[in-house]
Amino acid sequence: xxTWRNWGGNQTAEVDxxxxxxxxEEVVGLVTQAAADGxxxxxxxxxxSFTAIAAPVQDQVRLDRLTGVIDVDQDRGRVRVLAGTxxxxxxxxxxxxxxxxxxxxxxxxxxxxxxxxxxxxxTGAGLQGLAASIVGLTLVxxxxxxxxxxxxxxxxxxxxxxxGLGALGIVTDVTLQLVPxxxxxxxxxxxxxxxxxxxxxxxxxxxxxxxxxxFPHTDRTLTKRNNxxxxxxxxxxxxxxxxxxxxxxxSNVLFEGIxxxxxxxxxxxxxxxxxxxxxxxxxxxxxxxxxxxxxxxxVRFTESxxxxxxxxxxxxxxxxxxxxxxxxxxxxxxxxxxxxxADDLWLSTAYARDNAYVAVHQYHRMDGSRYFAAxxxxxxxxxxxxxxxxxxxxxxxxxxxxxxxxxxFVAVRxxxxxxxxxxxxxxxxxxxx
Length: 433
Ligand SMILES: Cc1cc2nc3c(=O)[nH]c(=O)nc-3n(C[C@H](O)[C@H](O)[C@H](O)COP(=O)(O)OP(=O)(O)OC[C@H]3O[C@@H](n4cnc5c(N)ncnc54)[C@H](O)[C@@H]3O)c2cc1C
Known about the structure:
Helices cover about 30% and strands about 25% of the residues. The chain is of the alpha+beta class. It has an eight-stranded antiparallel β-sheet with strand order 16-13-15-14-18-19-17-20, with helices on both faces. Strands 6-7-11-9-10 form a five-stranded antiparallel β-sheet. It has 14 helices and 20 strands. Flavin-adenine dinucleotide binds near residues 45, 49, 115 and 121.
């Protein structure tokens, strides 16, 4: 027996067996055997979800032998990639092919199917989450059958299977619709919260990618604007020393130290946030898109993130600020605010709705439960939909109200996994047993 643990350290599970299939046939064999024996199987990506969505009940299936790009269609800008491929391998491979994901999140540690299964997103008011790039996939369903789902075969299942929470089966490969590789010019700078909130919708619309980090207990933010530039743009990547200083020493080593100090003496958080918000000074650089999007995160934390309708972003932040100021909580991590466009995936937080995403974090050695509960109460008043991979307490009854196609998804699950081979307590909670 081994212990499965997620990156944030807030979820653990005892695992009977770890299975590492090396082919589609081996996945089919494992699922067929599990179905015959009545055992539960859980496909695990990089375990970067903060919820127990990837927690195995009996056996975990690791797809680290199913990695790499297996087909390239340059004419259509599509690649077929094995499900266990980590983004840190996929992104440079795509770049060498002259292709890129249209948008990415903050890190590249996730596997491609781990990321898409929970609705991982980046920022960009005109851009959708990562799962929207999937145009086809291969799925091994509860009885061990293999199913191709794309525009030609089983197309009716695409809106469920592209973002399936790991509830419909084991995905062995996905076909991604990509865009030509592009470079981004990044502009990052500290700005006062009030001034940013006053123009936040303009900023979201004017920039291909806009996000802000607000430091609780202060009126300071760090804003990030990333826009596409052509090959003639004179901008350069950050020099190695600056990348090392900002992204390694300040954002990780110093930030870890700060968090340890705040854990020891929480009341220092407000003063410390003043320092943190100043430590990351203004900077500009230009680089390949994936190098701009993804940074290193070595300071462990837990996180809750909700999608709210774009129009709610300012009221939500104002309510959160009022709560922080009156709560007595000490919060050393910034609040992250991002934007994304509506899509048509049934369980996407952006289903039929343009969103702002508000994310709250707590250092892993500190208790975030009171903060997360207060945040959850605030976003509940705005039809907030929780990120499937980040801490939340909602169950099927509330989620059914938030997702118009919820019952359609459950019907697909009943069809593809009637015996719940792929279920776990988290899925039982959010989808029903
Ligand atoms: C430091 C950090 C930064 C983050 N930044 C962002 C961000 O910028 N934006 C954002 O939206 N999220 C972000 N997240 C959340 C993260 O992207 C998601 O939780 C993502 O799902 C994790 O991917 P994973 O590979 O670790 O998958 P896991 O957490 O291991 O699994 C997630 C789900 O995918 C399923 N799954 C995995 N592989 C398969 C398969 N082959 N077939 C079927 N199901 C499968 C699992 O069963 C599970 O249901 C961040 C998380 C961390 C820890």
